């Protein structure tokens, strides 16, 4: 646990999503249209390692999280545990009042609560990607989505210009907090394979 509740909840969501991937589910398509479940998983693991390496003395990801190979270098559970433990340990050592915490996405430094939220946003949205790609309910709850939306609104627009995030989709009448967040991140809430 990191004592950053938003990050702990997002890590739990990612663990749940990955634990539910069936043996034959790793090559399924995902809402990230260019990537399979394996590649989204590699990206999520790499991003958590990226945050950890900037905050602590841990190694950077072996692969570029934005060019995942689709081939796992170790058992998925081991890769995920190592990445989430590294990120949790790194964030546990960050002062909540720090104003210039290094992060792996533009603007590359954020106030600590926003940086921890950015790390959480990454884990949580990819938990959703993996869950829906494998035909399961979202582990990204409406409450967590509600907490992540203001973080997304603070950090997404700059990196979106560099291709870190898809173009936002128009909100629709009746959208709940989860749908609002997903559309803001360029995802269709009703996506199915």
UniProtKB/TrEMBL annotation:
This is TIGR03086 family metal-binding protein. InterPro entries: CHP03086, DinB/YfiT-like, Maleyloyr_isom, MDMPI_metal-binding. It holds the Pfam family MDMPI_N. Residues 7-131 form the Mycothiol-dependent maleylpyruvate isomerase metal-binding domain.
């Amino acid at each position: 646990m990191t004592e950053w509740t938003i990050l702990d909840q997002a890590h739990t969501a990612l663990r749940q999503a990955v634990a539910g991937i069936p043996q034959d589910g790793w090559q399924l398509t995902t809402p990230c249209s260019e990537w399979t479940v394996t590649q989204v998983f590699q990206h999520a693991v790499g991003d958590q390692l990226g945050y950890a390496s900037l905050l602590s003395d841990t190694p950077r990801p072996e692969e570029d999280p934005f060019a995942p190979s689709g081939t796992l270098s170790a058992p998925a559970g081991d890769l995920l545990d190592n990445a989430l433990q590294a990120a949790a340990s790194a964030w546990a050592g960050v002062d909540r009042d720090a104003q210039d915490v290094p992060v792996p996405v533009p603007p590359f430094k954020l106030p600590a609560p926003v940086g921890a939220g950015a790390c959480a946003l990454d884990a949580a949205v990819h938990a959703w990607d993996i869950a829906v790609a494998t035909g399961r309910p979202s582990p990204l709850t409406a409450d967590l989505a509600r907490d992540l939306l203001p973080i997304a609104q603070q950090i997404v627009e700059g990196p979106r210009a560099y291709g870190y995030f898809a173009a936002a989709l128009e909100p629709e009448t009746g959208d709940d907090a989860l749908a609002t967040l997903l559309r803001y991140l360029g995802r269709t809430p009703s996506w199915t394979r």
